[in-house]
Amino acid sequence: MKKTLFIFFILMIFALNPLVLAEEVEITMAVGTVGIEQELAERAAEIFEEENPGVTVNIQAAPETSDERRSVFLQHLDRESPEIDVYQIDVIWPGEFSHYLVDLNEYGAEEIADQHFAAMIENNTIDGELAAIPWFTDAGLLYYRTDLLEEYGFDGPPQTWDELEEMAAVIQAGEREDNPDFWGYVWQGYDYEGLTCNALEWIHSHGGGRIISEEGEITVNNEQAVEAVNRAGNWIGEISPPETTGLVEESSRIIFEAGNAAFLRNWPYVYALASEEGKAVAGKFDLAPLPAGEQGESSAALGGWNLAVSRFSENKELAAELALFMAGPRIQKMRAVEGAFNPTIEELYEDEEVLAANPFFEDLYEVFENAVPRPSSQTGELYNEVSSLISENIYFVLTGDLGASTALEYLEMDLEDLLGFETGELE
Ligand code: GLC
């Protein structure tokens, strides 16, 4: 009798096992790999797993630059792959990606959307559907060495590009005596999305508009824009290293962090990394708005990343739950405190721990508020081509192959061909 009972139990265990297994679910989320992004995503995934027994979250590393990430993601989505459930998507992609993504409003986002900045929800809403939930926002900032500014007798960070050029040249000349690798100003000049961001900042800060206006007119070919791009071209080899044409976010951060630059243009995430104990510049730098041209005002490109669920996911419900959890206040706070990733939840800008870790969230709030969007809403699915034309033509100026006025004339013609838009006068 006992033996029969034993065999019965053993059989039951085998019979139930598939049921137990059926409860195990795996969700894959593809995330960015700039700085400590991936590490923070992994930690957040562990918290989600603890709270959702039976769920395994695989964090998949996506390539470093926005352009490469986009290509990899589109390869998956174009072939309707269910391998990745949740994608980290750039603020400029919703128009191009939305047809591959679920409407998060149908998965509970509608109830929490008003915690986020309205402009970001609007940016991610395509034909009434919420393609992605905002995760963190970005704006271009000026990192500067407080110790060197003081040493060379400058009162504070530059307000204008002329001042930046002067300070960069003076500090560079002085520092070169001991450090031949030292440069005045480091930024992202590789031919990619980051160059489009830099170029928009130069142009807008010189009063040269937004390349394509909010109404959809091509405005890039104007005097102030030519002045701005020409100025940037002249930095190379003077106050910026010749290898600027190969620099992206991480490679430029590393130059600054090593103590080899007076100024750096980059996004907020650098703050947390450059402040780490043991870094050569820890405690020796601060942040300011980017400089302005004579006829313009300080301008920061608007960046940021969002979480989206693929239409091809086999677990859309759970994937959406994960995306909303990751973009919720608890994880956004953790990422802000530890990684200086700007929250998209307005309330977190009043959180004491968040502000103590990142005083500039408060001091530079206006920079974030007034950041200038790239023309992705106006150009939708064509934005990537628009941006490639922008960065490509500007790149030729940086390499010395084209003068700024010719490059902007070409860019205007290219954009007209692509968009069939009218060329507009800069108001
Ligand atoms: C940052 C921004 C993103 C932008 C990219 C360009 O990651 O958040 O919006 O496209 O930089 O390199």
Which structural class do you get from the secondary structure elements? alpha/beta
Span between termini: 94 Å
Order of strands, main sheet, comes to: 2-1-3-11-6
Mean model confidence by pLDDT: 95
CATH topology of the largest domain: D-Maltodextrin-Binding Protein, domain 2
Share of helical residues: 40-55%
Quaternary arrangement of the chains shown? single chain
Task: State the fourth-level CATH superfamily of the largest domain.
Answer: Periplasmic binding protein-like II
| SS field, number of helical segments | 20
**What's the total count of β strands?**
11
Q: Bin the strand percentage.
A: 5-15%
CATH arch. level architecture of the largest domain: 3-Layer(aba) Sandwich
Which cofactors or ions or other ligands sit in this model? alpha-D-glucopyranose
Q: What is the name of the CATH class of the largest domain? A: Alpha Beta
Q: How would a crystallographer describe the biggest sheet?
A: 5 strands, mixed
Please mark out the parts with pLDDT under 50 across 5 or more consecutive residues, or reply none.
none
Tell me, what's the shape?
globular
Query: Rg, please?
Result: 24 Å
What report would you give on this structure?
With 427 residues, the protein is α/β, with parallel strands linked by helices. It has two domains: 2-139 and 303-369, 3-Layer(aba) Sandwich (D-Maltodextrin-Binding Protein, domain 2); 141-301 and 376-419, D-Maltodextrin-Binding Protein, domain 2 (3-Layer(aba) Sandwich), CATH 3.40.190. The chain is built from 20 helices and eleven strands. The chain has helices spanning 2-22, 37-51, 66-78, 94-97, 109-112, 118-124, 146-151, 161-176, 193-205, 223-235, 249-257, 269-274, 316-326, 329-339, 352-357, 359-363, 365-369, 376-379, 383-398, 404-419, and strands at 25-31, 55-61, 86-90, 125-126, 129-130, 133-139, 141-145, 183-186, 261-266, 285-288, 302-309. The strands form three sheets. A five-stranded mixed sheet has the order 2-1-3-11-6, sandwiched between helices. Helix 9 (193-205) crosses helix 10 (223-235), helix 9 packs across helix 19 and helix 19 (383-398) runs antiparallel to helix 20 (404-419). The radius of gyration is 24 Å and the shape is globular. The N and C termini lie far apart (94 Å). Bound molecules: alpha-D-glucopyranose.
